[in-house]
Structure formats: structure tokens, C-alpha cells
Amino acid sequence: MRLAILTLGSRGDVQPYVALARGLAAAGYRPVVLAAPPFRGFVEAHGVEWRSFDCGDPRAMLHSPEGRAIVGQLGNPFKLLARLARLLEPMLEKGYTDLLQSTADAEALLVAPTALTFAQGLRERRPELPFAGGFLQPGHPTAAFASWMFPEIPRWLPFSGALRRASHRLVWRLLFAVMRKANDRARASVLGLGPATNCFRDMCTERWPTLYGFSPTVVPKPPDWGSEVDVTGYWFLDHDPSWCPPAALEAFLAAGPPPICVGFGSMPSPDPAALSRAVVGALARAGRRGILLSGWGALGDVELPETVLALESAPHDWLYPRVAAVVHHGGAGTTSAALRAGVPSMVVPFMADQWFWGSRVARLGAGPSWFPRRKVSAERFGDALRELVENPRWREGARRAADAIANEDGVARAIAALPF
Questions:
Q1: Lowest mean pLDDT segment, chosen from 62-66, 189-193, 348-352, 358-362
Q2: Per-residue pLDDT tens over the stretch 245-271
Q3: At what angle do helices 160-186 and 92-102 cross, to 10 degrees?
Q4: Which helix (H) or strand (E) holds 337?
Q5: Are residues 40 and 184 in the same domain?
Q6: pLDDT of the residue at 273
Q7: 7-37: buried (b, 16+ CB within 10 Å) or exposed (e) per residue?
Q8: Helix 392-406 and helix 332-341, axial crossing angle in degrees, nearest 10
Q9: Are 191 and 256 in a shared domain?
């Protein structure tokens, strides 16, 4: 079966689906991953077929003035969504055009939430096409926890369960509303379709089969989710065994005690140099060596002491088990890698679902509660880093989580749960 996997976003939004595609190929499927052109080399390097699904270069968008404004919109998720919609609007028609061409031979679809509106239009054109969702963040309404856009709703509040369930529905309405006009124009122009219904609402009311690629240890399946929903476990993609660590990295690791790894993945920063200086000062205050992963630019080029090494990136599954602790932005993929490594971690959220994953790390006892990005300073952050590595509670919690995750095979369970 030719199975088209649709995903949009940063590398963290692509990598798990590459892992799933490799498992699908081994099980006899013919998977193809549809992602933005910058990820072609990454996808193909893992032996997976890539096709274009071009809604713009996510890195360029995040580092544009508009993208930096989005990341800076910490306190107002509604403004964040509105700005994001304006950034994406010009690229919707190109996305629909690519999708139509790249799925011409598809016999089934597996769709990330970022591509759900596109897949809805394609299914209207080809209603016979089997379909399943493949999500990395919780989306179905539940009384067990609030939506990723809202702070946790405490259980002592009256009607707390109903409020949590309503928060999920509200987020789906907002996500649909901010893109509605532009999406309808693109659907009409490329697909010849009328106005869309809310695909997120339809997902729930029509009980679309949905696989969640996160660990039931981290987010157990709530009792009010239906049988069409399966929490499979993480879809891990291990690094290429031919990859060799830079000599400078190997030498640094061998030269002293395990360092703290600090990196914020695809997130940009309004002032990368200032954030880097604060992190370096915090490491000094904590008395710890450090590795800074610059990623997509949250951390900048500053003068570093001999106790700190700067890298653009390194495979998380190789690096994280070799460090004392991990500080990261709380992306779903980075969170899973830190938990899998069994080392304490602390989340410094930038946007979107990152507060949710930071809270999950704390609930597992694998690290403290998330640390506010605007309060990262040599003093406060340094004290937090010291506590992160010196408190045995976090190391014990991280090891328990890693042991549980090691017994899960998310890819195999996802393939077994597919409805086609």
C-alpha cells in the first residue's frame, strides 16, 4: 500500500514520521513522507522517500521579523495564533498544489495535526481515500488535563473536568477560525471546493482513527478518549550509526565531569547573544561545565570559557546519555529524547505546547517545573541548574521514566493499530 505521511513544521515535526515510515517500509508498506523542501536530504538520508509539501521554509519563517514576533508573544496565545496565520496565508495555495501532486498515487493518508486542514480538502476530493491522524501532542477533548494552550486547571476548581474538556474545544475553534478565510480561498482556487468545516471538530465527532506518538508513561490515555484513539509510545529515530562525533566534542566530554547540555532546538531568540551570556553565567554560578547547542539560533556567538563548548547540533540519542542534565525548549521530540536518556531535564518554554511538556516532565519527577524564559539570568538560572543536577530526586525520576519508555515500542504498536 502506498501510504502518504503529511507533516509540516520544524525538524521535530518531521523526524518522528521518518521513524514511523521506516517501520512501515519494513512491514511491507510503501510510505512516502511529504514535508517542506529543506527536509528532503534529512528524510532521504534515512532511506525514506520524500515528496514536496511546500508551505514555506519553517526556519526562514521563524527567523523573519514576523516569526520572531510570534515567538516573543509569550503571554497572549490568541495574538500568537493571529500572527502565525498571517505568516502562513501567502503559502496556502502552494501547499494545496504540492499536496495534490504529491499524493496522486496515494492509497491511504497518515496526517500530522499541522496538515489536517490540507488533508481534509484532499479527502473531499477523494472520499474513498483511507485516513488516520498521527499526532505528537494531545488534541482530543478530555477531562484529564487542559489543552496545551492553557495553564493547568486545578482539580479543586468547581467543574474542573468540564473546564479542561472545554479548553480543548476552544483551541480547535481558534485554530480553525484564524485560518478560515485564507484556507477557504486556497481550497477554492486549487481544489475547486467550497468553505471548509472545522476539521478538528470533525475529527472528534466523526471519530477519525488517531495515533498519538507519545509515551503512555508520559501521557496515559484518558478514560474519556474513544477506542478510535491509540497512545502508541514514541516514534524514535536513532541517529545514523555512521555519524561520528566531532573531535572537539569527544575531547570536551573526556576532559571533565559530565556537562549540562543547553539547547533550544528550532526556536529563535530576540537577543541570542544576551541569552547565551546569561546561560554561560548561570553555568559558572552552578559550578558546572556546559555544552551549548545553537540549533536554529536561540543561542548566539559569544566568547566562551574553556568550561563551555558550543555546537550547532548533535544527535540527541548519542549526546544526552553522556551529559549530567538537559535544558531545552520543551518541544515534543526533544522532551522525549531527554526522557529516554534517563537524565534530569528542565524546560524553558518559548511557545505553543512547550509549557505542557514542561509540566509533564515535572509530573514524572524527571525534573523541576518549567523555568520562565524571561527570568533566565546568571543568578536565578544558575541556582536552578545547580538544583537540577544536585537533587537526587530528579535523577531518580528520570531513570524511572527511561526504564518505562524502554519497554515501549511505539512504532510497532502504531503499525499494528493502523486501520488500513
A1: 62-66
A2: 999 999 999 999 999 999 988 777 778
A3: 80
A4: helix 332-341
A5: yes
A6: 87
A7: bbbbbbbbbbbbbbbbbbeeeebebbbbbbe
A8: 100
A9: no
- Taking only the tens place, the pLDDT of each residue in 270-315 is 788 888 999 999 999 999 999 999 876 668 778 899 999 999 889 9
Higher pLDDT pick, 106 / 83: 106
Task: List C-alpha distances in Å: 232 to 1, 7, 78, 292, 417.
Answer: 21, 18, 31, 32, 8
Residues 76 and 200 in one domain: yes
Mind giving me the DSSP string for 10-44? SGGGTHHHHHHHHHHHHTT-EEEEEE-GGGHHHHH
**CATH number, domain with residue 393:** 3.40.50.2000
Question: Rounded to the nearest 5°, which phi and psi values hold at 109?
Answer: -125, 140
* Three cell numbers, residue 13: 515535526
Task: Read off the pTM.
Answer: 0.91
Residue type, 284: A
Cα angle: 167, vertex 173, 177; to 5 degrees: 145
User: Among 174, 206, 238, which residue terminates a domain?
Assistant: 206
Distance of alpha carbon 17 from alpha carbon 388, whole angstroms: 32
Q: What's the domain range around 188?
A: 2-206
- Domains of the chain: total: 2
